[in-house]
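Aim 2, interim progress. The first record below pairs a target sequence with its C-alpha cells.
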Amino acid sequence: MSKQAQHWEKTRGLLFVTLAIWFVFSMGIFLFGAEMNEVTGPFGYPLTYWFTCQGSLAIFVILIFWFSNRQEKIDEEFGFSERGDD
C-alpha cells in the first residue's frame, strides 16, 4: 500500500471516530436525556436543555483541538506535515 493510501486510511479512521463522538454529544444527549426534563436547571430551563447546550459546546471545542492534534501527528508520521522547520 502506498504512503498516501496509508495516510488516507488513518485520516479516514480519525474522521469516523470524530463524527461518532460528535453524534453522541449532539444527538445522543437529546435521545436519552428525556427523563431529566422534570428537573429544572438554571434560569428555569429543563436540565436536559441546560446540559446539552453547555456540555455540547464545551465538548465540540475540545473535539476540534483533539482532532487537529491527532491529524497533525498523522501528517507528521507520513511526511505530510505543514509545520515549517523554523
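The second target in this work package is listed in the same format:
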Amino acid sequence: MLSKKLKLLFNPYLLGIGLLLSLGSCGENNQYKQLLADNYYLIEANESLTETLVHDIFSPPVASRIYAYPSIASYEIVALSAPDNYASLMGQLNKSKPLSVDPSAYPKANYQLASLAAYYKVALQLIFTEQFLIENRDNLFEKIQSAGMPDEEFEASIALGDAVAEEILAYASEDNYHQSRSFGKYTPTEDLGSWKPTPPAYIEAIEPHWNKIRPFFLDSASQFAPEPPPAFDTIPESTFYQDAKAVMDARVNIEGEQEEIAFFWDCNPYKMNVKGHVMYAEKKITPGGHWMGIAGIAAKTKKLDWKATSETMATTAIYLFDGFISCWDEKYRSVLIRPETYINIYMDKNWLPLLQTPPFPEYTSGHSVVSTAAAEALTKLLGEPFHFVDSTEVKFGLGVREFDSFRIASSEAAISRFFGGIHYLPAIDNGVEQGKGIANLINQKIKTRIE
C-alpha cells in the first residue's frame, strides 16, 4: 500500500502541474538559443542598414564601404566561434592584422548574439541617421533577454561583440576614407568627349578620388583596368557614334520586359523629380544594396545557419567593395561623356533616356562590374543553378523577378543600363569582364572555410 507521501508524488494533477512548470522552465531557458540560431536577425540588420542608407542618400561607392565593415565584424565572431571550420579574414585583408581579441576572456558569451552586436556596433559608427538601426537592435536585444538569456551571458556577448567591433573600426579608420573627404572636387573640362553634369539637377561628379580607398584584396585600384573605350568621334560612320545611336534606338524601340528590367535594376539614389518649379529627390537603393539584399534572400532560400549566413553577407560585401574601387578608378581615368549628353548635342536635342543619368562618368558600367563580382562571390559559395526570387525592390515600389542563377541575374543587371539609356554597350561588356577579373582574383585569395 502506497504511503501518503508517495500518493502525493503520483497524484496526476500534481504531476501535470510539475510537468508544465518543467517544460515552461526549459522552454524559457532555451528559447533564446533557438531564436538566435535562425539566420533572420543578421539579414534583418542588413535590411535596416539599407533603409538607413536610402534615407541618408549615400553614394553607391560609400554605401559599399558601409555594408562591408559591419559584415566583416559579424563574420569575425563566426571565426572565433568555430576556429576549426571558419578562417578569420583579419590577416587576409590588405594591411590587416589578426584579431587580438581572446574569446576565452568571455567564457559566458553567446557567439550568435556577439556577432549581431558587432554588426550593429560597427554600422552605427558609419552612418548619419541612427534611429532605424538602434530601434532594430534594441528590439532584438529585448526579445533575446525576454526569451530567457541570463544577464551574465547577455553582457558577455555584448562585450565580446564590442571588442571585435573596435578592432574592425580601427582597421576601417586606416582605409583613407576620412582623408578623402577633404580631397578636391572634380572639375569638368572643355574636352568634347569628357563627362559633363547631366539634367535635371546637374549634380557634380561623386567620389572622384574613390580609387585612393584601400581595397580588401586588389593589389591596386588599377589592377583590372579595362581596355580603353572607343575613341570619341562625332562622324556618323565612327564606332563611337554608332554606339550612341544604338542607345538612342534602344530607347525608341524598347519592349515591355526590357523596360521592366531597366526600372528593376535602376538603383539610383540620386534620382531627382521636377514638377513645375519644384524639384525633389526620390530615394532609392544602391546597386550594392540590391546585391546585399540578394545575398540575404539566398541565405534564406538555402536555409543557411547563422554562421554561413554571416559568411555569405561578408563575402558578398567584400567583392562589391573592391568592385567599386576598380570601377571608379576607370571612371575618372577615361572620364567619358554620357549617352544623354552626346545624343543631345550631336543627334537629337530632345532625346531623353528611360532612366535618369547618375552623376558620374560613363565608363565602365558600375552595375556591370559590381553585379558580376557579387554574382561570382555568391556562385562560389552557393553554386549554380540556384533558383531564387528577388524581392529586394518590393519595399521600394517595384515587383519581383525570378532567376535560376546569380550569373543570370548579374547579366540582366548589366544590360539593364543599356535599356535605360545610361551606358553604351562597351561600358557594359568591358565592365562585365572587369568584374570577372576582380572576382577571379578574390576567389584565389580569400579563405573563409578551413578544409
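The beta strands are 272-275, 278-281, 388-390, 401-403. This observation will shape the mutagenesis plan for the next reporting period.
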